[in-house]
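Hey, can you fold this one?
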Amino acid sequence: AERGGDDLLGALEAANTLYESGAAVFATPLIERQQHKRLMPNDPMFGQQWHLHNTAQVSGAVAGNDVNIIEQWDTYTGAGVNIAITDSGVQVSHPDLSPNARTDIDIDINGNDDDPTPTSDPHGTSCAGIAAAAGQNSVGVIGAGFDAGIVGIRLIEAPTTDAEEAEAMTHQMAPASASDRVHINSNSWGPFDSGQQLATFGPLTGAALADGVAQGRGGNGIIYVWAAGNGRANNDNVNYDGYASSRYTIAVGATGGDGVVSWYSEPGASMFVNAPSSYTGAGTTTTTTGSGYTSGFGGTSSACPLAAGVIALMLEANPNLTWRDVQHILADTAFQNHPADGGWFTNGGGLLFNHNYGFGRVDAAAAVDRVSDWQNIEPETTVASPVMNVNTVVPDNNATGVTSMISLESVPDGFFVEHVEVVLNATHAFGGDFTITLTSPQGTTSTLATTNGNRSDDYSNWLFTSVAHWGEDPTGAWSLKLADLFFADVGTFVNWKITVYGFTVDSNVVSADANHTGIVNGHHNWPFNDFQAAYDAVDPGGTVQVQSNFTLAGPSTFSKAATLDASSTVQIGTS
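Sure. Predicted structure:
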């Protein structure tokens, strides 16, 4: 067919004739298609924003250590998604923030009015720029979700009460108009990162977070994103901060332009993902008060809104994602930064995890791609133990410590672990003497606390959270070990209990399309291994396909007629 012609059928027939003649190794029509340029922002300071596009333009950076977002901007920009910046306030008049500022639904909780403009602290204004500074406006910088709405919530420029924090968590949770909802609530704050205390939210804030995930976004849940904390030099840990470690929040750590954990970013079993932020040699470039810009912003304070901006693209692509779906997608698609770090391990659910990095660095391209065909996960299921009384003195300066076991046996078939919570009571004159580890029936060990000479408080009904067991089968014996690794004082392991949150999946959930292709329905390595039903559901001549995020003992696609007989069984997952 001639160039530009529409005789596609004729071209196909000609190609087939040529191929069948044996005169060509292959023959195919040349079909025209219009290619499109990748969006390259015209914001003049974009070249400095290595966290969005790392070309090794700053000291110590290694190209590619960014959130891999540019290709998604061709399609998704965060439009229609509102990000609350709960912080010291937001200068909504800033020329790079005002186009996205939702001044009609802002709030100043500190000042009891509707103007979130800070008195002096630029922190929230910088967070807002990282998340959603206006893009493609030939001004300043660009945010990760550069068309998202910015809802300023001025909260931490003054001391706050439990009631005020609760108000911030539920602001615009269920407004009259769906367009005025807060979809994502970004929080770059928390208890002081001294490593000297355990601190968490009050009962009202706890109830507000639970309400937010249950009722926010029309029942899909507000996505709470939280800075993991900057107390690494003080031996602080994400699990000493009840805000960041809550199962309702996504704890975000910080890594530098070389992909290595930033010197201040805390480790923890509740660390979910990490994102690029300041490190030795470079900060992130964003907005600041006075209508200006800074290249010195950083900390997990910067990593948190960066992740929030990426999530805005995910929600634009699929508004029906629940708060738990967002967590699953981030866990499944995170990039293994700094693979040379010895802390990486594969858990019993087949996921890589590292206490420094969580599941890895946020990968915007992979996350948004996964969103397109995502099937919402099943409702949450909970398995809880009674309190296990131990009442045993923990030997002083002894690595053997005391280990207690709890066996979970009444677990529904096909249970998939999400969060694991441990409530611990242990007394000690210096609670920081304890190292505390939790080991699952699958053999995965998560470190809940490390020895820290700065801390003197007890563990009094302290709630630890671990995501390191994500995807595992919780059936069997869980062990909690307390070891006192400092001289002079002894403590007592009093009691503990465990609660596992997740969902159950039917191993026989298979769909077949018009081409008789059966697709196993799921999101990761389910704890089951019977694949027979997939073949039974597909016509004899059809194909059964295993999604790429499964671990499969064999190729990912099978022709039922050619490869397997009616009695064949294929193992999937890790069992």
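The chain has ten helices and 24 strands. Let me know if you want another pass with a different chain boundary.
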